[in-house]
Amino acid sequence: MGDSDEKSAVYQKQIEELNLQEWIYIENSYSFGNGKLENFLEENCDIAMGIFGDSEKAKNVTANKVIDACAMKIPIITGFSAALKEFFNNDSIYMVEEPTIENIAKTIIEVAKKDIQEVARNTESAYKIYQDNFSYEAYKTKILKLLDK
User: Fold this and answer.
1) How far apart are CA 45 and CA 48, in angstroms?
2) Residue 30's pLDDT is what?
3) Sorting pLDDT into bands at 50, 70 and 90, what band is 2?
4) What Gene3D superfamilies does its record include (predicted)?
5) Are 38 and 32 a contacting pair, CB within 8 Å?
6) Apex CA 78: angle with CA 74 and CA 79, to 5°?
7) How far apart, in whole angstroms, are the C-alpha atoms of residue 19 and residue 47?
8) Rounded CA gap, 113 and 102, in Å?
9) Are 123 and 93 in contact (CB under 8 A)?
């Protein structure tokens, strides 16, 4: 919700109506802008959920939050995307081909049952892909190559 209590009010109401306060809370004081969110996620996030839309856009983009999770070395479950497939495979991030509720839940359970070392290897693989393709240094190198042509 970013830093907006107002924007999160509708979700806070749903959490309370479903009596989920014990497991879900909304924290609006953390953002990348104020430097609090990255550290919080690295310390508290066991898995990052990517995008699961069925629009043409969702099936063809690389979502920033997937790249952010790679940079923070957080395991990722996301819907299949042609753009993601260009860089990642199931040995780096966990892509759900048909992102139905059942398939997403099944993937969460499968990842939870995996050996922690396997998940760590996949996460390191995703981080290497991030470093090689999406980091500031990789971007700078690629832009400079283009400018030299």
Assistant:
1) 7
2) 85
3) low
4) Glycogen Phosphorylase B
5) yes
6) 170
7) 23
8) 17
9) no
Q: Token pair 């048909």 is at which residue? A: 98
Top-level class of domain 45-148: alpha beta
Which amino acid is located at 3 in the chain?
A: D
- Mean pLDDT across 99-127: 96
Q: For residue 104, give the nearest of 80, 138, 88, 140 by alpha carbon.
A: 80
Q: Which of 25, 32, 22 is nearest to 2 (CA)?
A: 32
At 58, which amino acid appears? A
- Could you say which DSSP state residue 61 is in? -
Amino acid found at 37: L
Q: What is the pLDDT of residues 66-84, one digit of tens each?
A: 999 999 999 999 999 999 9
Tokens of 17: 């109506």
Which residues make up the CATH 3.40.50.2000 domain(s) of the chain?
Answer: 45-148
Q: In this structure, what token pair is assigned to residue 34? A: 């104020």
